[in-house]
Write a structure and sequence with these properties.
Elements lengths: L1 E2 L2 E2 L2 E9 H13 L5 E3 L2 H10 L1 E11 L3 H12 L4 H11 L2
Antiparallel strand pairs: 1-2, 3-5, 4-5
Length: 95
């Protein structure tokens, strides 16, 4: 995605495994005017539609420069602990 000829890098905010939290997080991000993308595979989408939950999860991605604000909002509303994601980011940077 580009804005004003600037490439926007999307990074993972969280992996979500149920419809309620997917919709809640998307609503929080929309209300805060934070763009987002969803990433999941087709088999996972089938389980989500039939069972209401997923085996692998849907990744919610946000622009890198909005990551901290998105984390704060999601944590405030849903109580999501992002410490594991922060460690995952550090591990990925060291690869």
């Amino acid at each position: 995605m580009t804005t004003n000829d600037k490439e926007i890098k999307f990074v993972k905010l969280v992996s979500v495994y149920d419809n309620f939290n997917i919709l809640a997080i998307k609503g929080i991000l929309k209300d805060a005017n934070i763009p987002f993308q969803e990433s999941s595979d087709s088999a996972n989408e089938y389980f989500r539609q039939i069972l209401g939950s997923q085996l692998i999860g849907t990744d919610i991605l946000v622009p890198e420069d909005s990551l901290q604000k998105a984390r704060e909002l999601v944590n405030m509303v849903l109580g999501v602990d992002f410490r594991g994601y922060e460690q995952e980011e550090k591990d990925n940077m060291n690869k």
